[in-house]
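Journal club prep, notes for RB
We'll compare a predicted complex against what the paper describes. Inputs for the heme C case:
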Amino acid sequence: MFPRLERFDVDFDLPDAFIPEFPPAIFLSNRPELGDVSRGEVVSINNYYRLFKDILTPVQLDGLRLLLTPFPIFFGKGQCGSCHPAPFYLDNQMHDLHLERLLKNEPGDGPIKAFTLRGIKESPPYMHDGRCFTLEDTVEFFNLVLELKLNDQEKQDLVAFMKQLWAFPAVATA
Ligand code: HEC
């Protein structure tokens, strides 16, 4: 029989004791009759297209591509991953962004808990007080506050990365 169907996420759902020789099976919850769609392979940026091109929509394929692509700006230069780490894109810690540095004669917000970035596309406006209306605004905000000096391409990539944190289709792992 097919296993219990749940959402599959490459970061999140691979078991801790993952053994490369025995990659977990992947079942699509909307097409369980296909069986293990990974066909026994470890899904990676190199084989995802061949494995999934006939069973996922172009949008889903693109979401999967982004999910499998290491994102150097999010986890590197942008430092986003240090407070919003995978798989929840959340560290459950308080952070003081010290906004008073950038404001004249106004107090900062003090320590605030970071929010998860999963499904972030669906929940504008952003930040505890809704000061950012779009994801582009949040990237500008952190660019300023963290003094990242991101260029336009890097900003666009960060927004694209955050938008796909929902896009992977519902599938199951065995
Ligand atoms: C020093 C820790 C830290 C870093 C680094 C950081 N964030 Fe955040 N992030 C936070 C905190 C704290 C909040 C909540 C702030 C608030 O509500 O005022 C937040 C909120 C957000 C939100 C709004 C979430 C929501 O639900 O409203 C987005 C989007 C976001 N961060 C994206 C990013 C991106 C993109 C980067 C990298 C460029 C980044 N963050 C780097 C701590 C951090």
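Talking point for the session: Residues 2 and 32 are 7 Å apart (CA to CA).
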